[in-house]
């Protein structure tokens, strides 16, 4: 699913109005009506007090359209205009006038704290104060209003985006943002719903279709995309009856050191389970026995050194290599890594200390082949690209790094983001149970396995991250968040593949929403 920027959303509005020859404020009418339908379906006329707080731009206008429909259908509605400026938008004013047609109860004007209404815990707040048009910091009395919402503990439904969140800038003051229970976002989810610093401002979100011009939506390229089942299904390669293991490639995992052989076991097993025809592990001597006994399906080659990698020298022709899990940063390992990078021609997945060695020795970066996949977690990324002051800066720096070095960065996190030049792909699968030792080694193995099956590097990265997260989601149902082990993710990888062809995602989402309502 595409995630449109603020500018693209405004442009979409304009194009839609022109192409569909819409009367003024028709899109606002659609937006308000859709939110009404959403609430009406769930509330079925219940007389819970609904407090609708409207700003003076189009977000506020949406709130007024909603108020009108709720009033017409006999709901218990109080409408307020948060008087935050003088520049009321044209469509806001149209909606304001239309409220007059259905009630004699005028929206109340709020100008300062003493105007705030009493809100009870069981009431509902609709936050239609600021939408994507927020363009400056918020006055203190409006922050106090947001605090008033929070203190009431009432269910808060935000229209389009929690008021106070910018679409393209970090939050200035955490007290200046509404904490929403649910956000109904028009046409496209907003990037801030997925970033660690801002995702918490809405517990759940849903996209509402307001009929923006289809062609515009289809043909407009976005910098950000959400990766869910629909996006990865076309990457899946069905097998033919007469295929043999040679068709699915030979993955090689290079890594391990004394005490960290387990990382190689996890990654190596993941290569096979993701579908590679063959796998070899290249480890220090001390890894030979554990690997041969725990993973009979794998082949093992060893370094001359007992405890660490000192010389990467193999006589096989792998189709993809994953390097770095448990490898350490011993001087002899760095030398071996440099020599390896100088001669290697095989597509690479680079993880853990193989990333750290690049950060410490920038000349090695030049040896990394184009389209290599780097899978850093937070600290590894910081060492690689430098620190950042916000999620936005992090993404910008990651994009610059990816473009400059022509590599794919898989930034691991609650929503793993794959950065490929200017493009950012946000993964939707996965859960906090996967924050556990070895989870990253499994990911490295899966991506290496997909790469050895001749997927394009970007496809291997996106598909691998999706499958890893989906396997974790399925595994957590059996093991629970606390007890999930990285090995369990591997055990559920087969289920994650099978799940790709279970019911279409749309139907699942709908059921989920109904359940929660
Ligand atoms: N396709 C779609 O998605 C559709 C979107 N629609 C809806 O339109 C919304 C965008 O509407 P919008 O552009 O009118 O701006 P909005 O978010 O209401 O901003 C607030 C207004 O207040 C002002 N202002 C800004 N910051 C301020 C501050 N700190 N303190 C005080 N004032 C401040 C600023 O005006 P200014 O004072 O700068 O002139 C601005 O006009 C969008 O989120 C969605 O809900 C639908 O109606 C139709 C289809
Ligand atoms: K809002």
Automatic annotation (TrEMBL):
AMP binds at residues 412-416, 440. It comes from the Bacteria. Its EC number is 4.2.1.136, 5.1.99.6. (6S)-NADPHX binds at residues 58-62, 131-137, 160, 263, 326, 377, 441. Residues 228-500 form the YjeF C-terminal domain. Binds 1 potassium ion per subunit. Coiled coil: none annotated. Keywords: ATP-binding, Isomerase, Lyase, Metal-binding, Multifunctional enzyme, NAD, NADP, Nucleotide-binding, Potassium. It catalyses: (6S)-NADHX + ADP = AMP + phosphate + NADH + H(+); (6S)-NADPHX + ADP = AMP + phosphate + NADPH + H(+); (6R)-NADHX = (6S)-NADHX; (6R)-NADPHX = (6S)-NADPHX. K(+) binds at residues 59, 127, 163. Residues 9-218 form the YjeF N-terminal domain. Its cofactor is Mg(2+); K(+). Homotetramer. In the C-terminal section; belongs to the NnrD/CARKD family. PANTHER family: ATP-DEPENDENT (S)-NAD(P)H-HYDRATE DEHYDRATASE (PTHR12592:SF0), ATP-DEPENDENT (S)-NAD(P)H-HYDRATE DEHYDRATASE FAMILY MEMBER (PTHR12592). Catalyzes the dehydration of the S-form of NAD(P)HX at the expense of ADP, which is converted to AMP. Together with NAD(P)HX epimerase, which catalyzes the epimerization of the S- and R-forms, the enzyme allows the repair of both epimers of NAD(P)HX, a damaged form of NAD(P)H that is a result of enzymatic or heat-dependent hydration. This is Bifunctional NAD(P)H-hydrate repair enzyme. The lineage of its organism: Bacteria, Pseudomonadati, Bacteroidota, Flavobacteriia, Flavobacteriales. The gene is nnrE.
């Amino acid at each position: 699913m595409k995630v449109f920027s603020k500018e693209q959303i405004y442009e979409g509005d304009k194009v839609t109005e022109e192409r569909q020859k819409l009367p003024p404020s028709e899109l606002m009418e659609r937006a308000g009506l859709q939110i009404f339908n959403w609430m009406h379906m769930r509330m079925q006329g219940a007389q819970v007090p609904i407090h609708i707080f409207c700003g003076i731009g189009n977000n506020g206008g949406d709130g007024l359209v909603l108020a009108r429909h709720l009033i017409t259908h006999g709901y218990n509605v109080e409408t307020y205009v948060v008087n935050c400026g003088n520049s009321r938008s044209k469509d806001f004013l149209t909606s304001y006038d239309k409220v007059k047609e259905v009630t004699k109860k005028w929206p109340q004007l709020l100008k300062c704290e003493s105007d705030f209404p009493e809100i009870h815990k069981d009431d509902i707040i609709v936050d239609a104060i600021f939408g994507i048009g927020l363009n400056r910091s918020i006055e203190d009395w409006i922050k106090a209003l947001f605090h008033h919402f929070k203190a009431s503990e009432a269910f808060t439904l935000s229209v389009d985006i929690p008021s106070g969140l910018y679409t393209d800038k970090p939050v200035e003051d955490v007290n200046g943002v509404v904490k929403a229970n649910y956000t109904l976002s028009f046409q496209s989810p907003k990037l801030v719903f997925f970033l660690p610093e801002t995702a918490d401002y809405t517990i759940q979100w849903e996209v509402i279709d307001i009929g923006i011009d289809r062609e515009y939506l289809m043909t407009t390229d976005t910098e950000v995309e959400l990766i869910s089942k629909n996006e990865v299904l076309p990457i899946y390669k069905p097998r033919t009856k007469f295929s043999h293991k040679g068709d699915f490639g030979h993955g090689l995992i290079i890594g391990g050191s004394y005490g960290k052989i387990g990382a190689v076991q996890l990654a190596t097993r993941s290569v096979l389970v993701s579908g590679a025809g063959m796998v070899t592990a290249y480890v220090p001597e001390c890894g030979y026995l554990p690997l041969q006994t725990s993973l009979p399906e794998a082949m093992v080659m060893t370094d001359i050194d007992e405890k660490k990698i000192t010389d990467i020298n193999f006589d096989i022709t792998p189709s993809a290599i994953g390097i770095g899990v448990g490898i350490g940063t011993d001087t002899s390992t760095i030398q071996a890594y440099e020599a390896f990078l100088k001669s290697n021609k095989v597509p690479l997945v680079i993880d853990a200390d193989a990333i750290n060695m690049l950060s410490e020795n920038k000349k090695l970066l030049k040896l990394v082949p184009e389209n290599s996949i780097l899978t850093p977690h937070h600290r590894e990324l910081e060492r690689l690209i430098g620190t950042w002051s916000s999620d936005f800066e992090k993404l910008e720096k990651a994009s610059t790094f990816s473009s400059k070095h022509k590599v794919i960065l898989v930034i691991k996190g609650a929503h793993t983001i794959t950065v490929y030049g200017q493009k950012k792909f946000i993964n939707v699968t996965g859960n906090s149970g996967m924050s556990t030792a070895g989870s990253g080694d499994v990911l490295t193995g899966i991506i290496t396995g997909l790469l050895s099956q001749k997927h394009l590097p970007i496809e291997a990265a996106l598909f691998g991250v999706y499958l890893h997260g989906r396997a974790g989601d399925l595994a957590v149902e059996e093991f629970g968040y606390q007890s999930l082990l990285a090995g369990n993710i591997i055990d559920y990888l087969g289920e994650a593949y099978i799940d790709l062809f279970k019911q279409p995602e749309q139907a699942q989402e709908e059921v989920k929403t109904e359940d929660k309502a």
